C-alpha cells in the first residue's frame, strides 16, 4: 500500500514509518520541516519514503499528493505536555489538531481516486479525568479543556465519512517507549530521585509503542474496523504502581514523591495530564480481535528500559 503520514517525524510517527517501510509499503511523509525529515528518513535507508512539505493548517499543493495514497494516518498536533498552558498555547494545541485534521479531510474529499481509509489520532483526554470511574469507547465526553480539544478534533475527522471513506479514530493513552512521557520520567530514577507524581492514586492508562503501531496497521488493513477504539492496554495502573515498577526494573528507589505543586509550577494547567488521570479500557479494541503484545506494565518497561 501507499500510506500518507502526518506527524511522521514525531515519537509515534517515526516508529510507524519505520515499520511501514520495513513491511514493504510506500510512505508519503507530510512534514513542515523537510530537512529534518530527510535526516530522520535518509534516502539510502528509506528508498520507499517520499517527503512532501506542507503547512498543516493551510490548503496547498501538498493535498494533491493524497490522491496517490491508499490510506492516511493523521498524527499531527502540538505536544500537550510541554510548557505552561497560556491562552495562546491552548489555542495552538486546539488549532494544531482541529485545523490540520480539517485540511487532511479536505484533501481526501477532493482526491480522485480517494484513499480508502483515514486513521486519525485522538486521546483518552476525551473522557475527562476521574479517580473512580472506568471509561470505554461508549463513555461520554468530559468537559475540561482536553476533552473539548478531543471532541473538536474528532468532529473534523468524522466529516470524511460523508465522502464514503472509512474512518478509524484511535484514542491514544500515554505511549510508552524511549521518548514521550516515559523519557521524561527516566532521568529522576537514574539519579536515584524517582517516585510517584502527585497523590500517586491517579490512573495511568498506557500503551507500549509497538502495540500502538500494530493497532494502527490493523486499522489500515482491516476493512471491518471503523469508528472509535481506545489505544490503551487492558491493564491500566495507578501512578504509584507505575513508579514502583519503574524502580524495580531500573534497580532504583521509587519512594521520593514529586509534589503536585512542583509539577503545577512547571506546567501550569498542563499539569492535569499527569496529576489527574483516567482509567480507560479498550473494549472495542479487544472485540476487534487485536492482541496486545505488552498488556502488562512490567514486561513492557523491561523491554523498553533494557
Description:
By secondary structure, this protein is an alpha/beta fold. Helices cover 39% and strands 17% of the residues. It contains 11 helices and 13 strands. The strands form 4 sheets. Strands 3-2-1-4-5-7-11 form a 7-stranded parallel beta sheet, with helices on both faces. The protein has a two-stranded parallel ribbon with strand order 6-13. Strand 4, helix 3 (87-110) and strand 5 (117-123) form a beta-alpha-beta unit. Helix 1 (11-22) crosses helix 6, helix 3 (87-110) runs parallel beside helix 4 and helix 7 crosses helix 11 (297-305). It is globular, with a radius of gyration of 19 Å.
Topology:
Layout (H helix, E strand, L loop, with lengths): L1 E5 L4 H12 L3 E6 L2 H7 L8 E5 L17 E4 L12 H24 L6 E7 L10 E2 L9 H14 L7 E7 L1 E3 L3 H11 L12 E2 L1 E3 H13 L5 E5 L5 E2 H12 L9 H8 L4 H4 L3 E2 L2 H5 L9 H9 L1
Parallel strand pairs: 1-2, 1-4, 2-3, 4-5, 5-7, 6-13, 7-11, 8-10
Antiparallel strand pairs: 9-12
Helix pairs in contact: 1-6, 3-4, 7-11
Features:
306 residues, alpha/beta, seven-stranded parallel beta sheet, two-stranded parallel ribbon, 11 helices
Q: How many beta-strand segments?
A: 13
Q: So what's the overall shape?
A: globular
- Class derived from helix and strand content: alpha/beta
Proportion of β residues? 15-25%
Instruction: Give the biggest sheet.
Output: 7 strands, parallel
Oligomer: single chain
Q: SSE string, helix = H, strand = E? A: EHEHEEHEEHEEHEEHEEHHHEHH
Task: Count every helix, treating DSSP H or I runs of 4 or more residues as helices.
Answer: 11
Q: How far apart are the termini? A: 33 Å
Strand order of the largest sheet: 3-2-1-4-5-7-11
Residues in helices, as a percent range: 25-40%
Could you report the average pLDDT, rounded to the nearest whole number? 94
Q: Report the radius of gyration as a whole number of Å.
A: 19 Å
Unreliable segments of 5+ consecutive residues: none
Amino acid at each position: 500500500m501507499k500510506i500518507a503520514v502526518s506527524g511522521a517525524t514525531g515519537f509515534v510517527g517515526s516508529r510507524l514509518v519505520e515499520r511501514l517501510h520495513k513491511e514493504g509499503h510506500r510512505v508519503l511523509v507530510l512534514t513542515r520541516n523537510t530537512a529534518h525529515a530527510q535526516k530522520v528518513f535518509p534516502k539510502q535507508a528509506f528508498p520507499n519514503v517520499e517527503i512532501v512539505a506542507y503547512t498543516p493548517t493551510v490548503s496547498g499543493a501538498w493535498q494533491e499528493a493524497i490522491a496517490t495514497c491508499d490510506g492516511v494516518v493523521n498524527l499531527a498536533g502540538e505536544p500537550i505536555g510541554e510548557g505552561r498552558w497560556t491562552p495562546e498555547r491552548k489555542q495552538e494545541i486546539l488549532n494544531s489538531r482541529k485545523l490540520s485534521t480539517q485540511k487532511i479531510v479536505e484533501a481526501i474529499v477532493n482526491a480522485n481516486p480517494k484513499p480508502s481509509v483515514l486513521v486519525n489520532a485522538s486521546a483518552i483526554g476525551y473522557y475527562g479525568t476521574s479517580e473512580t470511574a472506568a471509561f470505554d469507547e461508549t463513555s461520554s465526553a468530559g468537559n475540561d479543556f482536553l476533552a473539548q480539544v478531543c471532541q473538536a478534533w474528532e468532529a473534523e475527522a468524522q466529516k470524511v465519512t460523508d465522502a464514503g471513506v472509512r474512518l478509524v479514530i484511535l484514542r491514544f493513552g500515554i505511549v510508552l517507549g524511549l521518548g514521550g512521557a516515559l523519557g521524561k520520567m527516566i532521568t529522576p530514577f537514574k539519579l536515584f530521585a524517582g517516585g510517584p507524581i502527585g497523590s500517586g492514586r491517579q490512573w495511568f492508562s498506557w500503551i507500549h509503542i509497538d502495540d500502538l503501531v500494530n493497532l494502527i496497521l490493523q486499522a489500515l488493513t482491516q476493512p471491518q474496523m471503523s469508528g472509535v477504539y481506545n489505544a490503551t492496554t487492558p491493564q491500566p495502573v495507578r501512578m504509584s504502581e507505575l513508579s514502583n515498577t519503574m524502580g524495580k526494573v531500573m534497580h532504583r528507589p521509587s519512594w521520593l514523591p514529586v509534589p503536585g505543586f512542583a509539577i503545577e509550577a512547571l506546567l501550569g494547567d498542563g499539569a492535569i495530564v499527569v496529576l489527574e488521570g483516567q482509567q480507560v479500557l479498550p473494549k472495542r479494541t479487544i472485540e476487534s480481535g487485536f492482541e496486545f503484545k505488552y498488556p502488562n506494565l512490567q514486561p513492557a518497561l523491561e523491554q523498553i528500559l533494557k
